[in-house]
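Good morning C.,

I know you're traveling, so I'll keep this short. The sequence:
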Amino acid sequence: MITSDSVNGVVRRGRLGRTARFAARWRGKRDGARGVPRIVLPEPSGEQRSKTPPPIEPPAPELLITPYVMEVRTGVRRTTEQMRSALIGREHALLSKLRAESVRVVTQYDVREDPRPAALARYGHWVGQWRTSVDRCRSHAHAVVDQANQRLACYWDAVRETHPQLSRLPRRPPGDWLPGRVELDRSWYQPDVWLLADDDSTRTATSRALHILERQNTDRVDGRTA
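The tokens, ready to paste straight into the viewer:
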């Protein structure tokens, strides 16, 4: 269960502190003054100089991956991977139970062809517990990502104040232009993938049991809406 206290805690962790903002801006000003990233924007032609110059298009984001951006992205990847490993460690008993029950579900439904809805409902309850645990952990991982993107926003805002080329770009709100933006790995939105990835010996049974469970849930919904 996700309480209001846990939600507030996630919000607090996602907020960037004054020291972190200062450090990101200091690094951005230093990099900008040194001409990092090394980029040259096109100069307007002679005809364009006599008129209102067109807006300068920013370089492609992949050209703007500085050491600081890599540092932030690597830190997020390391932290979120540690969070994932800690989650799997905390839920080891549940995962073991799920994998053992997956074999029983497949045996009952595919081998013996003797469906046991009550047993499948119990299995579905455990799957729901696992998905809820991942959802809760994902909210904390999102806080890490949000904080990292705030650091990048402060960094790039400062880079553009001192960089001889990027300072020519039109001003935008901090965060609107964010090369190297951090995103959570897609597997965070597919918690069942982690059930399959960490135990090859039961991968087939777990995948099949999840399919059986999903099919029954779909049939139940279709039966109610028919």
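Safe travels,
E.
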